[in-house]
Amino acid sequence: MRTSVTPAVRRAVLSVTAAAGLAVSGFAAIPAAAAPASDAHQGVSFTRSCADPLPGHLACNALRVTGGTVKAHAKGLGGARAARAAGSVSGFGPADIQSAYNLTSAAASNGAGETVAIVDAQDDPNAESDLAAYRSQFGLPACTSASGCFTKVDENGGTNYPSPDSGWAGEISLDLDMVSATCPNCNILLVEASSATTQDLGTAVNQAVSMGAKFVSNSYGGSETSDEASTDSSYYNHPGVAITASAGDSGYGVEYPAASPYVTAVGGTSLTADSSSRGWSESVWGTSAGGEGTGSGCSAYETKPTWQTDSGCSNRTVADVSAVADPATGVAVYDTYGASGWNVYGGTSASSPIIASVYALAGNPTASVPAADAYANTSALNDVTSGSNGDCGGSYLCTAGAGYDGPTGLGTPNGLAAFTG
């Protein structure tokens, strides 16, 4: 059994700061653990969505903002009415995600017929109705079980859903909403594992692939163990399927399954609108003090894939690419199971489904391991060159710089070219 990562940051209510922003409101009390920790980003408080896991279980990487102000304020899609409605929602929305990553045209025309699978543990009884509320708010086309756009199954493909859990329900809402924001025309398959063990979550991944999903997002992780290579072959080795995995929310350090050479390991950034030609800027989500922020580093056990060429780690390096994850520049999420509706979320649980959905916009993968495509198309990514997620002696493994670095990988999407064959 795999032992989960549970440093202090994962057991505490954390604080982050936004330099300017709009008030966050409407948050419900989902139980969270213990004493607060602080970092350089004072002003916005947030907590892990999922409770601390039992030994042998994995943890979801969703962080729910509980107070303060955030920089992000959702823009509307679908005309003036939707834009006015979106104005009351804090957190980045579909228009922001698509603009930041140069996806607006692709999102309008691509994705039809593609299925993005979301793998999570436990049940969210309100998943479909909450998804409908999110999509309506932003003027996105409806995605329902009746139309065949939305499907929810248990880890064996049936309807014997696991027991509900408010923390994982928040994670599920985050995942479904990020697929909707990034690829509005995609079908969505939610596979709910019976528990948060590696075996159950891995079984859910296999189920998603068996049902035809070519894009599978995994927003969870735990500590590496010496048997993970066998786990790779059992659950994550699906040639031609883009499987994404969150790099983690505890700062510098490697989680599994992000360490698997068969997945695209997704790191996290802080995303800010600015006056540049792009209209946006990004830095590493995290601080040099460590303890919170995107995960990264050199795997202790996984062999380096042939397509990864950095020289400071002889094994697999995390991450490959990245997207927004900082709760202080977080995303809008609608969740009513244990929450009161609109929330702002962050964590690499946001960036993983975003990247899976970018793959879906680009079409069916051609590489055996789709992560390889980004390494062959580095010019089609936004290189993130500032920030750190911990103390590693200034190494690229925890410090951003020109070209590849651990916290943000090769960078963030700039259109689809880095995600095609």
TrEMBL record:
One GO BP: proteolysis
Lineage top rank: taxon: Bacteria
UniProt cross-references to InterPro entries, sorted A to Z: Peptidase_S8/S53_dom_sf, Sedolisin_dom, TAT_signal, Tripeptidyl-peptidase_I
Secretion signal span: 1-28
Positions of the Peptidase S53 domain: 91-421
CDD domains registered for this protein in UniProt: Peptidases_S53
Record keywords, A-Z: Hydrolase, Protease, Signal
Keyword set includes Disulfide bond: no
Transmembrane feature ranges: none
Gene Ontology molecular functions: serine-type endopeptidase activity; tripeptidyl-peptidase activity
UniProt protein name: Subtilase family serine protease
Species, as recorded: Kitasatospora kifunensis
